[in-house]
Protein: Imidazoleglycerol-phosphate dehydratase
Amino acid sequence: MRTAQITRKTAETDISVEINLDGTGTYDNLTGVGFFDHMLDQLARHALMDMTVRCAGDLHIDDHHSVEDVGIALGQALTQAMGDKRGIRRYGECVLPMDDARVACALDLSGRPFLVWDVEMPTAKIGTFDTELVREFFQAFATHGGITLHLTQAAGVNSHHIAEAAFKATARALRDALEVDPRTADAIPSTKGSL
Structure:
């Protein structure tokens, strides 16, 4: 079973993450940052990844440390749960519309982290949430998950819709990339023999 449990404790945050890559998309995420919890729920549900996240962070300062550190821990959990990546499809892509917004995600579970972020939020806030933290999450997640991750916005005027489209597109692309291909279930998806 492709599962992982990660704990990460610093002077700024105390985080636990549990994931099951072969789940049904159940989730129980409590970070103290309401909008971010909503985005994590979307990631779990649309990737069909069971996910439980707990974060106690220094929210009296701002949401930055909590959002970034959850991205770090979730990326570490993904890496652990994938193991040697035997049998996975490795690549995934999705163009996802959400009302006015359309965001494309293309990713490679290559072990070579890289983020291409071509997304612009028209507002600085979604409620009390700083929109710049969406990129911070994806940077941390890609770096610690070993993901080459490209997110490109083609349309959108509503920051909530743009952010949610980015999370959902990433989830759908992850779902495809993590799926085991029955034709190559015993093989590493690389001519190098490892990822």
